[in-house]
Amino acid sequence: MNNIMDNFISIPKQKEAEFWNINKIEHIRYLSNYGKPFKIFSDEDGLRILDRIKFRGHGDNINDSPIADTSVDFLGLKMSVPIYLGDMSFGALSGNPNIAIANAADISKTLAGTGEGGILPEIKNLKRIFVQWASARFGVDYYSINSGSGVVIKIGQGAKPGIGGHLPGTKVTGKISQARRIPENIEAISPAPHHDIYSIEDLSQRIEALKIITKKPVFVKVAATNYIPYIVTGIARSGASGVIIDGQGAGTGATPEVIRDNLGIPIEMAVASSHDILIKEHLRNNFKIIAAGRVSNSTDAAKLYALGADMVSMGTGILIAMGCVMVKKCNLGYCPTALTNKLGTNKIFDIEFGVNNIVNFIKGFRLELANILENLNLSSISELIGRKDLLYSDGISKNTSNVLNINSVNGGNTYYKQSEFEYNTKYLNELINRGEIPITSMGSNSPPDVSLPSRIIDWLRIDGAQVTRPSIDPYRENIDTTFYLGKGKIKISMPVIFDISNSTDEIKNAISWASQFTGTMVIDNKKTEKYRNVTLVKHNGIYKWNDVIYSVDRGNNDVSGYVIEDASFNELYISELDKKLKEEGHRYERDIIPVIEHFKNSGDIIKYIAIGADAIILPSKIFEIGLGNNHSNLNLKALNLLLTIKKEIALISGAMGVSNVQYSLSGNRELLRGINLDNDIENIIGITEAGSL
User: Fold this and answer.
1) Helix/strand/coil percentages in the chain, nearest 5
2) How far apart are CA 577 and CA 582, in angstroms?
3) Domain count, the chain
4) Are strands 188-189 and 129-133 parallel, antiparallel or unpaired?
């Protein structure tokens, strides 16, 4: 007997910092149940930059029947409120939720995206949908792209910038196979780039072709990445009607954890800078900006409208309105609410329940937004778009305020807000036991905007290739992770060296065996370790390479480089040494190798290399933490760890558009951006703020 999911279930206890916390979920559920306003100016004491942006003096009156006008004319469609029900594909969702979303958009006079999973027969005649044209072209043909009211060319998304969509094979059942036109039970990994779009010129041709064949508006969806202001201007000049910008931390059905937690920039920074450059370039008129990524309530939306968005996209919030309880098992197909479960299970999502909840949610959201307008003495939503003068920032850095282009109070040093470092035991355990890149779902809880940072690199985000620099598909193309050290005498397969000095003999033997198998390197300060006729010894706290001391004696021409012992702020030492060696003309004769005791994931490696390191030394402690009490098959588990780190380095590099890690990434700070990091630290490291022009 089938279990029909037609009610909310209890929210599980949240054991760690969550963006979608109990307060946010209960707010959404109230709107979904009653369709009435619940809370306005709901500023939580969060770490997000958006949480630190406030509206200037305003009232707090809530009226059940506000008269402020939230409707807009959007490319000929009359909309009750500027909300786009985010691109969630059939496959990521279980079918009935897709039908509910599309029908709710029709009833509520909003818009919905189909995602890249093809068009379900039940929604093909609905008009308030935008059909996605993604890199794999799943289910795309003349009839599908002529459905609905517009087309979205998906270049990227905020949860996984620089890589394509990912639907695990276990979820590719018969109906999904038919809709997507792919084999059953085979994972569907979309190409990272569109293989006919490698430049703005290529994109322009695709936009024009789709406009000709559909006679409908064409939008381009991109992830919020380092060059977003220039990407958006290029899209505007290419004839698109608008852009969907998807910020870091956005939800998704499946993504590599290491990509989700390290790549992309916040939506508020991307919207603010994109709006400003479009005005500067005289491209803003008749070009629409849709802002996506962690839009949780009407207050978030109002701030984004004021920063320059014409519309906000809500994906996770809509799922919560339909019952999602954030167990984050979307990729596994075991959703307790039947929203993302594998088809064929005994749980079925009730369409009528979903439609009613979404319609109620949008009604309550619209009433809250109207109340916000009235408390700001505005009569319509059009009066709020781009009104940065109504905003100020509280407690964010000067560089961040400059990008937002709003006034700041209590600005200055933000670095002191740190936490104690905690190892990601679950991640390490998955690397070691499964030997596969950990795949996860929904939004990120990573620092600096959900959990507190504990290291400088926690404030740094990695670029993802979008349009102006095409990504490289690491699933189908080769990424060279080889590094040469010791003036070219040492070749290692990736920029990682394991220090096994303090481990038991069984751990030492396992990591040493795996290191030889993978072409990497280990060191042991209790004895001399030989690797391809190269010796690395540690004696009295000093590393020696071929018996040449790694010191700060730059006058010694025989010195091959420097090992930087683990310490707080070692990111600053690495960066300063890298810059000084370049100034003196010795950089490419010297290696910089920091010892990193506090390792969270492979994104750390990429960040250290980009700020100036040539390799990093990791303690074998991380292997022991991931093992826990299970010490069986140590050789295999050590091999899993090394190979998976190498795969993740390649994955991140491909997402950045980098095919050779050492030659393209070493010291390339332009591939990093700071997120509300102290200005002085940003200047020392030599990076710019997210969203900077």
Assistant:
1) 35, 20, 45
2) 9
3) 2
4) unpaired
Give 219-272 as a DSSP string: EEEEE--TTHHHHHHHHHHTT-SEEEEE-TT---S-EEHHHHTTB---HHHHHH
Is 381 contained in some domain? no
Same domain, 208 and 101: yes
Name residue 133's beta-bridge partners.
Answer: 153
What CA–CA distances, in Å, run from 176 to 94, 183, 633? 9, 9, 38
Question: Do 584 and 462 share a structural domain?
Answer: yes
Spatial distance between the Cα atoms of 624 and 676, rounded to a whole number of angstroms: 34
CA max distance for the chain? 80
Angle between helical axes of 267-280 and 298-307 (0-180°, round to 10): 30
Contact present, 686 and 460 (Cβ < 8 Å): no
* φ, ψ at 37 (rounded to 5°): -65, 145
Q: What are phi and psi of 556, to 5 degrees?
A: -90, 110
477 in the same domain as 355: no
**Same-domain status, 505 and 645:** yes
Look up residue 130 and give its DSSP letter: E
* Residue 647 belongs to domain with CATH number: 3.20.20.70
Please report, rounded to a whole number, the percentage of residues in the chain having pLDDT higher than 90: 70
Do 373 and 379 form a contact (C-beta atoms < 8 A)? yes
Q: Are residues 277 and 367 in the same domain?
A: yes
Among candidate residues 517, 473, 474, 520, the one with its CA nearest the CA of residue 494 = 520
Overall average pLDDT of the 104-122 stretch:
94
Reported as a single tens digit per residue, the pLDDT across 35-49 is: 999 999 976 778 899
3-state secondary structure of 549: strand
Whether 397 and 404 have beta carbons less than 8 Å apart is answered as: no
Tell me how many helices (H) and strands (E) the chain has: 20, 33
Same domain, 445 and 370: no
Amino acid at 77: L
Same domain flag for 343 and 492: no
In this structure, the dihedral spanned by the alpha carbons of residues 139, 141, 146 and 148, taken in order and rounded to 10 degrees, is 0
Angle (deg, nearest 10), helices 351-375 and 96-108: 40
**H or E element that contains 624:** helix 621-627
Instruction: Report how far residue 661's alpha carbon sits from residue 653's, in angstroms, rounded to the nearest whole number.
Output: 7
Q: Where are the beta strands (DSSP E) in 58-212?
A: 72-74, 77-79, 83-85, 111-113, 129-133, 150-154, 166-167, 188-189
12: how many CB neighbours lie within 10 A of its CB?
10
Q: Across all residues in the chain, what is the average pLDDT?
A: 90
- 478 & 347 share domain: no
Encoded tokens for 86: 């985010």
Calculate mean pLDDT across residues 455-464.
Answer: 96
Identify whether 385 is part of a domain. Answer: no
Which has more confidence, 541 or 220?
220
In whole angstroms, what is the distance from residue 484 CA to residue 489 CA? 7
Residue 540 — pLDDT band, cuts 50, 70, 90? Answer: very low
**What integer pLDDT is reported at residue 667 of this predicted model?**
95
Among residues 376, 394, 426, which one ends one of the domains?
A: 376
* pLDDT tens readout for residues 223-256: 999 999 999 999 999 999 999 999 999 999 999 9
Instruction: Please report whether residue 46 resides in a domain.
Output: no
Amino acid code (one letter) for 335: C
For residue 371, the enclosing domain spans 3-38+67-376
Q: Is pLDDT at 551 greater than 80 in this prediction?
A: no
Is pLDDT larger for residue 421 or for residue 417? Answer: 421
Which DSSP helix (H) or strand (E) runs through 676? Answer: none
Is 584 within a domain? Answer: yes
